[in-house]
Specification:
Ribosomal Protein L4, Chain: A, 2 domains
Length: about 210
């Protein structure tokens, strides 16, 4: 089992914690992680885009000129033809679903691969607890300064402290979420992962 140092919010070492091999020490599968990221981003698309065909564009009910005898080059039935300025669009995007399916085991493997990669690269920091009495951005900034993260993008995973989430969302490159909301995109997008000991236990309970 991988053993990592446990810290408090002040950046001081308070002990060690053993992580579950089945979650934090699996073989990193980049292909599955890529598939999971593509799926997540695709499923977030609304698919509400739409262009108007010649049947939807306003106007064009009257034939612009008679079929023959005018000397004009074209036989036109409507000014809303795709060939005309202001006409309809041919084969334009229409509302559709971008949903992609992926087996649950594969989705979980992707998350475990991302967590294991964080451990392998020493990018995972375990905190004994992370709680705030009230939403206060300065408190989160103090935590970041205690660990000298510099310009790194930081993800906090807690047991669901809403004050931490509200305090972190005003800081560029910093995000906090509950352990139930752990997802592959955020794990790969952020450079440093701060996770509470309680959140580790809950994640291991679900993924192990």
């Amino acid at each position: 089992m991988p053993t990592v140092t446990k810290y408090n919010m002040s950046g001081a070492k308070v002990g060690e914690i053993q992580l579950n091999d089945a979650v934090f020490a699996v073989e990193v599968n980049e292909a599955v992680m890529h598939q999971a990221v593509v799926r997540q981003l695709s499923n977030e698309r609304l698919g509400t885009h739409a262009t108007k065909t010649r049947g939807l564009v306003r106007g064009g009910g009257r034939k612009p000129w008679k079929q023959k005898g005018t000397g004009r080059a074209a036989r036109v039935g409507s000014t809303r033809s795709p060939l005309w300025v202001g006409g309809g669009t041919v084969f334009g995007p229409q509302p559709r679903s971008y949903y992609k399916a992926m087996p649950r085991k594969a989705r979980r493997l992707a998350v475990k691969s991302a967590l294991s990669d964080k451990v392998n690269n020493n990018e995972l920091i375990v905190l004994d607890e992370l709680t705030l009495a009230a939403p206060k951005t300065k408190e989160v900034l103090n935590i970041l300064n205690n660990f000298n993260v510099g310009d790194a993008k930081v993800l906090f995973i807690t047991e669901g402290d809403i004050n931490v989430e509200r305090s972190a969302r005003n800081i560029q490159g910093v995000k906090a979420l509950a352990c139930e909301g752990v997802n592959i995109f955020d794990l790969l997008h952020y450079d440093k992962l701060f996770i509470t000991e309680g959140a580790v236990a809950k994640i291991e309970e679900v993924l192990a």
